[in-house]
Amino acid sequence: MSFQGFSYLLLLGLPDDLIQKGKDIKSVTEIVQNDNHFVFKVTTGSRVQRNEFTIGKEAEFETLTNEKIKATVNMVDGKLLVKLKEVTTVTELSGDLLIDVLTLNDIVYKRISKRK
């Protein structure tokens, strides 16, 4: 994990020991899309995080810190955009790549995943 990624997770409120424990664990993201309805399921070790939403409608999201936040996902220039409190997330599905850009204050964390 990069210093930037580490700093980002600290700002989110994750404890240092949890960040250290999880830094070498791979995550698997599953995305199911039916028109404007999405289900994102992220499995990291034994932890499974599932968020479901329809573009333009308010939904409840679970964050990395297990907090529940209501927000609305919008489609902007073909990218999914959501603001969860101070964190803005832009997700782009581009061919075999999933590109997430998370912004918190002045820290930008970019994560690129490849489809298997």
From TrEMBL:
Signal sequence coordinates: none
InterPro entries the record matches: Calycin (IPR012674), Fatty_acid-bd (IPR000463), ILBP (IPR031259)
SUPFAM superfamilies, per the entry: Lipocalins
Superkingdom: Eukaryota
One GO MF term attached to the UniProt entry: lipid binding
Similarity section: Belongs to the calycin superfamily. Fatty-acid binding protein (FABP) family.
Protein name in the entry: Uncharacterized protein
Species the sequence originates in: Eleutherodactylus coqui
